[in-house]
Design brief:
By secondary structure, the chain is of the alpha+beta class. It has one domain. A two-stranded parallel ribbon has the order 1-2.
Length: 43
């Protein structure tokens, strides 16, 4: 049976360094940051 690739989504709060968030995004992870979530909730 072939392996199935599934996208991974992660939530990063303000305590996670931005360099880690950027590196994971470059590797294809779907990242939601606290800052982005705050903007979305305000609109």
């Amino acid at each position: 049976m072939p392996a199935t690739l599934m996208p991974a989504s992660l939530y990063m709060d303000v305590h996670v360094p931005m360099s880690i968030t950027r590196a994971l995004r470059r590797r294809g992870f779907d990242i939601l940051t606290f800052r982005l979530a705050s903007i979305v909730l305000l609109h």
